[in-house]
Amino acid sequence: MKLVSGKHTRAQLAATLAIAVVIVLASTETQLKTAEPKRVDSLFFLGELNRFAGSGGEILINRVLSEDDASTPGKDQDGQLGDPDSNGPIPEHVIQRLDVGDRLAGIGIAHLVESLSHPPGPSTFHAAGDNKKNAARVFQVKTKQATANGFSFTFSPLSPDEFSATVAELSSGAVKIAAATIPVGTMVLSFDDPTPDYTLEKVSGSPAKNWVEATNGARHWNIGVATPDDFWMATFPSDDLGLLPLMEPTSTIGTIKFGLSLLAGSKGMTNLQHVQCTGPSGKATKHHFCLSGAATGTRGFATPFPIGLRTEILFNPMP
């Protein structure tokens, strides 16, 4: 199985992804001595097509074990061993197959906001220092289908109780988000943090502390499924996510897309115009948020999230 590795394109650098999830938004800016930190909403280009550029990491929670899911070395589908970044066989690794009913949970970081309504230039980017948004998301595999090029997946939200319990479990009880504050259909929760200093490797080796750092701040957006057209989908050359820690962070694997809605209870900038993206039907549909991206390798990267993500999210905030 050949896994593609390449340089960051402008689109890749301007965006980032994930699968069972919570999103955290955070912002900082150069301030006067008496100035208060502005909300992340101040970074948006109002009345224009905006793009978040980011990265992320996720954890696979196996709810349904395949026959070869195990904490023992495994081989690829051809029963071979080798280098995953070459055309050769795959080396020994822990097999972690993604199946229907499994959950993905992770954290995303948006590093900058870009306006796509004008030619690129210094005035079309809003980012400075640690100016960024963080994101935490949680969801489950709804469908899985073998294809000529690997596997395709669709994902669905957990119930509010399951979402809350999953985050609490992953953070060892340190992050408690009341189910009553999570709307039905939620797949992503965002937070507005005026002092963002979290990176995916900042508190490496302690998943619980990573969740605490990433969800610091005030609740911002609730994002998820609200219409029949809303979707979250992915395609991968293999259903074995255990391959990702063997690959370089510069590698891109498969595709990830979603078209989701802003849900009730969201704070801050909530006047969003719909943008178009293409879902499982192959037709263009309208959503508040359209994400595209890919999984990435995590070899040599000190992070407790073995599944890397690189994504971009399009949205259109109005005055």
Walk me through the topology:
Blueprint lengths: L9 H4 L8 E2 L1 E2 L23 E12 L11 E2 L18 E2 L8 E13 L9 E2 L6 E15 L2 E7 L3 H11 L15 E8 L13 H8 L3 E7 L6 E6 L15 E11 L9 E2 L1 E4 L5 E4 L1 E8 L10 E11 L2
Parallel strand pairs: 2-10
Antiparallel strand pairs: 1-8, 3-6, 3-18, 4-5, 6-7, 6-8, 8-9, 8-10, 9-12, 10-11, 11-13, 12-13, 13-17, 14-18, 15-16, 17-18
Summarize the structure.
The chain is mostly beta strands and 319 residues long. The protein has three helices and 18 strands.
Write a structural description:
- This protein is mainly β and 319 residues long.
- The strands form three sheets. Strands 1, 2, 3, 6, 7, 8, 9, 10, 11, 12, 13, 14, 17 and 18 form a 14-stranded mixed beta sheet that branches. A two-stranded antiparallel ribbon has the order 4-5. The chain has a two-stranded antiparallel sheet with strand order 15-16.
- 48% of the residues are buried.
- Residues 1-36 and 70-86 have low confidence and may be disordered.
- It has helices at residues 10-13, 160-170, 207-214; strands spanning 22-23, 25-26, 50-61, 73-74, 93-94, 103-115, 125-126, 133-147, 150-156, 186-193, 218-224, 231-236, 252-262, 272-273, 275-278, 284-287, 289-296, 307-317.
- Helix content is 7%, strand content 37%.
- It has one domain (10-317).
- The protein has three helices and 18 strands.
Relevant terms:
14-stranded mixed sheet; 18 strands; disordered N terminus; two-stranded antiparallel sheet; 319 residues; 3 helices
Shape: globular
CA distance, first residue to last residue: 48 Å
Number of domain modules: 1
Specify the biggest β-sheet: 14 strands, mixed
Query: Radius of gyration from the CA trace?
Result: 19 Å
Give me the number of helical elements.
3
Mean pLDDT: 81
Give the oligomer, counting copies of the same chain as homo and different chains as hetero. single chain
Q: Compute the number of strand runs.
A: 18
Estimated structural class = mainly beta
| Beta content | 35-45%
Low-confidence stretches: 1-36, 70-86
Query: Which series of helices and strands comes N to C?
Result: HEEEEEEEEEHEHEEEEEEEE
